[in-house]
Specification:
This protein is α+β, with helices and mostly antiparallel strands. It has seven helices and 15 strands. It has helices at residues 8-27, 35-56, 120-126, 149-176, 182-203, 277-283, 301-304, and strands at 2-3, 58-62, 66-71, 78-82, 88-94, 97-104, 107-113, 143-144, 207-212, 215-220, 227-231, 237-244, 254-261, 264-270, 289-296. The strands form four sheets. It has a four-stranded antiparallel β-sheet. A four-stranded antiparallel β-sheet has the order 8-9-10-11, covered by helices on one side. The chain has a four-stranded mixed β-sheet with strand order 14-13-12-15, with helices on one face. A hairpin with a 6-residue loop joins strand 10 and strand 11 (227-231). Helix 1 (8-27) packs antiparallel against helix 2. The protein starts with a strand and ends in a 5-residue tail after the last helix. The relative contact order is 0.11. The mean pLDDT is 79.
Length: 309
């Protein structure tokens, strides 16, 4: 039996940030004016995100025929997996880190990061699941993308809250029957426009992708009435794209598969957007691989807007 051992620095870092957030929330009543709703929403979201991150950290116990995961924040939240349940295992490498993942039905069920566990190599060596080599989906199977709803709904609601706070700030004097302060109106309008624009940028890449017998159907989440059809042979190739992070609060590098035609991005299949990312990756393996690209943050946005790669 192998039991995981945490690198406590990451856990303590998050606990300290939660404590500071609680202290800041206690100090919010001292603030007055239009800035108060902004701070309440911001600090509450930071606390919620930190708590969610702690809940996502798992203690791992590997036995002869499987492994058990247990949430650090919610110890009663346990799940046992048998090794035979998984399709395959794969490792992904970033700067000074490795993430070992176990995949079932195209979904990543368990992720084990080297930066979080002291005995990472021991855990990895004890897990008896075959690697990705030789794995493929059925050629005639229909593959339909499945959104990561927790991420999609969570960030959308968060952004909408800030938009509503901005609108409420702009209209606060009018609602309360006080003389209009144009500074407050402008501040609220800027906040609403800023977070509304961020929400639009966040939702723009989301597409429903259906692949069947070499044909690809694509519908945008924001405009589902417009449907585009492609043959897999239409694409010049694909790039593996790595959007790099700074590693704060458990953030990690995120991988995407970019299908291109005439040196322009046509379809982006992003790891955090889709629950069955691995299945979507596999179904496009017949397309020629053009290499690997790496970006930081919003640097990839220009290619989503039409810039040649």
């Amino acid at each position: 039996m192998v039991t995981s051992q945490f690198k406590k620095r990451y856990v303590w870092q998050t606990l300290i940030e939660i404590a500071l957030g609680v202290l800041a929330l206690c100090g919010v009543p001292l603030l007055k004016g239009a800035i108060l709703p902004f701070f309440i929403v911001w600090i509450a979201f930071t606390l919620l995100f930190s708590a969610f991150y702690l809940a996502s950290i798992k203690r791992i116990i590997v036995v002869t025929d499987g492994l058990e995961t247990q949430s650090l924040l919610l110890p009663f939240w346990k799940h046992f997996y048998r090794f035979a349940e998984f399709d395959y295992a794969q490792s992904e490498y970033g700067k000074n880190r490795e993430v070992f993942r176990l995949v079932k039905n195209g979904e990543r069920q368990v992720s084990i990061a080297s930066y979080l566990y002291l005995n990472f190599e021991e855990i990895k060596g004890a897990i008896a699941v075959k690697d990705r080599h030789g794995f493929s989906v059925r050629d005639k199977a229909e593959v339909v993308s499945e959104y990561n709803k927790l991420r999609l709904y969570g960030i959308t609601i968060f952004m909408l809250l800030f938009v509503l706070v901005g609108v409420a700030t702009s209209l606060s004097d009018l609602i309360e029957g006080n003389p209009i302060r144009w500074g407050v109106v402008i501040l609220g309008a800027i906040e609403a426009l800023f977070f509304g624009s961020l929400l639009l940028v966040f939702l723009l890449p989301y597409k429903k992708i259906t692949v069947w017998r070499g044909q690809v159907e694509v519908k945008r989440l924001l405009w589902p009435l417009k449907v585009r059809y492609y043959a897999i042979s239409d694409f010049d190739g694909f790039y593996y794209v790595l959007e790099k992070s700074n590693g704060q609060l458990g953030s990690r590098d995120e991988e995407s598969l970019w299908l291109v035609k005439d040196d322009r991005l046509v379809i982006s299949v992003a790891e955090p957007m889709y629950r069955n990312y691995e299945e979507l990756k596999t179904v496009f393996q017949s397309v020629r691989c053009l290499g690997r690209l790496e970006f930081m943050g919003f640097q990839s946005l220009k290619y989503h807007l039409g810039k040649k790669i």
